[in-house]
């Protein structure tokens, strides 16, 4: 290691968040633990639940849109304006196809959304 790379490594280790020093878990594993604590019965409205799921998974709205597509076909997923409206609570009641696409995009089961619309 060169003196410059050693100095850079030392300075980066000083500013790295202390919570990640020495952790053997990946970010995906940590995210799964956070998501395990989220239950749809804790929420009064679907939009609150979906927002909590997205934030726990460290996803952007664009990530949800991309994950909702089948084989990258935009017609098979939900649009960004739809995700924004649903998370803000201004969308209304989504139809069955939209619920399937939302479940796929957020990586949750359809049954976890069902309780909000029965």
Strand and helix layout:
Layout: H1 3-15, H2 27-36, H3 46-56, H4 61-68, H5 80-88, H6 96-106, H7 110-114
Helix pairs in contact: 4-6
In short:
With 118 residues, the protein is an all-alpha fold. It is built from seven helices and no strands.
Q: Which properties best describe this structure?
A:
7 helices, mainly alpha, 118 residues, single chain, globular, 57% helix
Q: How many H/I helices?
A: 7
- Portion of residues in beta strands equals under 5%
Number of strands: 0
Fraction of residues in helix: 55-70%
Distance between the termini: 62 Å
Radius of gyration: 19 Å
Provide the residue-averaged pLDDT. 78
- Which segments are poorly predicted (pLDDT under 50) over 5 or more consecutive residues? 11-20
Biggest pleated sheet = none
The helix-and-strand class reads mainly alpha
Global geometry: globular
Along the chain, the helix and strand elements come as: HHHHHHH
What does this structure look like?
Helices cover 57% and strands 0% of the residues. The protein contains seven helices and no strands.
